[in-house]
Batch of 4 targets.
Target 1
Amino acid sequence: RLTFAGRLVPDFCGSAMIDTKPLDELARRVAALIAATPAKDVERNLRALLASALGRLDLVTREEFDLQREALARARERLAALERQIAELEAGARRRDSTGG
């Protein structure tokens, strides 16, 4: 399992997600700090900085993640069915070969 800053990073095959509580708490504290000061332009600059930093990350929405997980599950089911079908065909071919016909 991959971790970053002590948090589990999703492997896109399981359902592990990064804990957003620390980010939410940071945002709440920054908002409270800015609200207590007259520096609204600092807030705008900080928001722009955070938006820029987050924009560079290769993130997906929860909805996109769930859709991809469902697609992967369907693909795995189809693969398993095809593997079973191949095994049945191979077994039939071995039976025909062993009976000489």
Target 2
Amino acid sequence: MIRGYWMMLADRGWFTMKLMSLSIIKSTVKEPHPAHARAGGFDVHAGFVIDSRDTQDIGAVTWTQPMQGDSCSLSPNGSSPICCNQQYSITAVTTSAGAVTERYAYTAYGLPTILDASASVLSSSAISNRYTYTGREWDATLALHHFRARWMSPIAGRFLGRDLIGYDGSEWGLYHFGNGSALNALDPSGLVCLAPCKQANRRSERQCCQAAKAIPNFDGGNRGLTFCCDGRVVTCVWSNRVNDDVGNVNARRIILNCIHKHEENHVPDIRPCPDICPDLRYGEPVDGYTFAMSECLALKRHIRCLIPGLRSCGNDLSCKEEVSREITDIFNKMKIACDAANIKGGVPGVYE
């Protein structure tokens, strides 16, 4: 099972941003420290909208996701890209035709220099773009960046407000930005520093699965889930949920194996995960795929796994009964997903 950004509901605790003309639901999830939770709940990665009515309706949305080169090409209409660097700082905005409208350069802590298409320095953005360093809002009057929970001064290289959880947030100080990695780190909420993953910082797959299960509604109550954790795709199967539903030991083994096959089928359908630690999020489908398509194909593989599993039950009538019930359940889910994806057939004798 994979679940997408556009399937999230704000009332489940995900952060909803309403910027200018477009409303975006963000779904990066991180268990908050109590003090951080009081300040605004879950951690949210950089996400923003630029909507300039004066310059060919330049509009773009960027997520903290891997990009081709340094180009963030996601946009409301798929045609108006922005460009960003390794920290998702905006380096350029283009028109829908691909012509550069403005360029941006930064000091180590994000003091911006705004340039026009010919690299002449501007006193302010000609397209009223305020999203700059690490995708955060720049207040030119105050010369400060707004990191949601706190303001940050690029001149001082520090936050103006104390970290709500004291030195638990950073051993280096209460106002520290980026934990000493200003050229790589992100802190979109002003509460949690995120940095490129190092192998030592990555949680094991087991730890990722435990973390996903511990977050309310993250797994949707499913018996398996494929998602991004600390820079790579992870697949999880929670055997206790199968054990609760399936009494026969042989049927349980067959069903668990087929859930594994189902989740493995999702892995190539998901874009590479952002190299950020700590991070736990739903994956995004590769170009040309939708979540319904991926789920349809995974459920088809699930059925193909269960049918020979049913035969392997032999004379165990209890095993046959429970695996048959599983086949019926998966068949019904497959039909819904495949109809949504407009995919027919592919499982001879089962779904034509």
Target 3
Amino acid sequence: PVAAALTAQAGSTVGFQAGLAGSSQAGGLTATWWVDGVQVKAVAAAHGQSPAFNYAVTDGLLHKVELKVRDNTRLVLETPVASKVWMVQGVASVPGTPTITALTSSWSAITMTFAAPASTGGSPLTGYASLCTSPGRVNVMASAKASPIVMKRLPIGVTYACTVAASNALGKGPSSAPRSVKTRLFF
């Protein structure tokens, strides 16, 4: 029987465990873990043991996690197999926070290089947006599909505090910690 789907945030890990019944001989049972029809782990076990499996939820889709147990000691033409099924519904969210790795200036331009967030939120990233601010000045915004982002035609000799945020289909994630840079007066 298939249980109702449990939900888990994309980027989290769900643990599964089930007690085994059958052969008491060491290695008399084989427990195999499957995710969406693909075998991901197999262990030799015995009666009374409880093999565990940790599943990392990576997206916002529905996944089937199954434990199949085969009794290796039965003397029959077909090996009896028992199974248990769990359904895991991933829950996507906005992406995590990217990290600015370099912020450089040239005459009237700023180039921001950044690392992608550790979590996409379970949905593919669609782009990045930067914001640079300076007191008494107009905010400067730019976007790109990937690093780097270049902001041009800026006033020279002005210090800007800049951040970057990643987006996916669910929206914009949190902004990075700000980093500051001053546009150069001359080349």
Target 4
Amino acid sequence: PPSQVMLQWNDGSWEHRAYWGANQIPWGVNGTDSRRNMGPLPATGQWVRLEVPASLVGLEGRVLNGAAFTLFGGRATWDRSGRSSGSVPTPTPTPAFSSVPVASPISSPTAMAFAPDGRLFVCQQTGPLRVIENGALLATPFVTLTVNSSGERGLLGVAFDPDFATNQFVYVYSGAARTLLRIVAKNPRVLREVA
């Protein structure tokens, strides 16, 4: 999805803008009619009605010559646009998902993947590869690797071999060393470095 969605209007000048999400498009002055923050990005994967009161962007009583729809990254599909008389109620968005805690405590998680056998493997930036089985976090990590976890480094990825049911291979990626390791799930140990 885009990181910013911006609507712009022209009344002889394009200095009338409203945006949702990150403040990455540098046109106008943030916090003024020329670039007004309307809040977080709307929900993705569904139609959402975007409304901006004319008074927030200096357009109350003005005649428009045009409008523009601008994104920073990603893509969006636009439908009808126009002026609302205020008589049409704004629909309440239906959440596209709900947040449900799975397990805790897991500090600094960086990636996760489901194994074909149903276990959820979670990378921790500092090196442990944790396992959630039948809804419970196992007390002992699957494996703990020695990694450089400063900044955006550490244990960053986990994937399963397409033939996991037979060979039990789990692949993990450590960003600092740019190392891909293959681990055997039957007996958690580092089998060998792949690349």
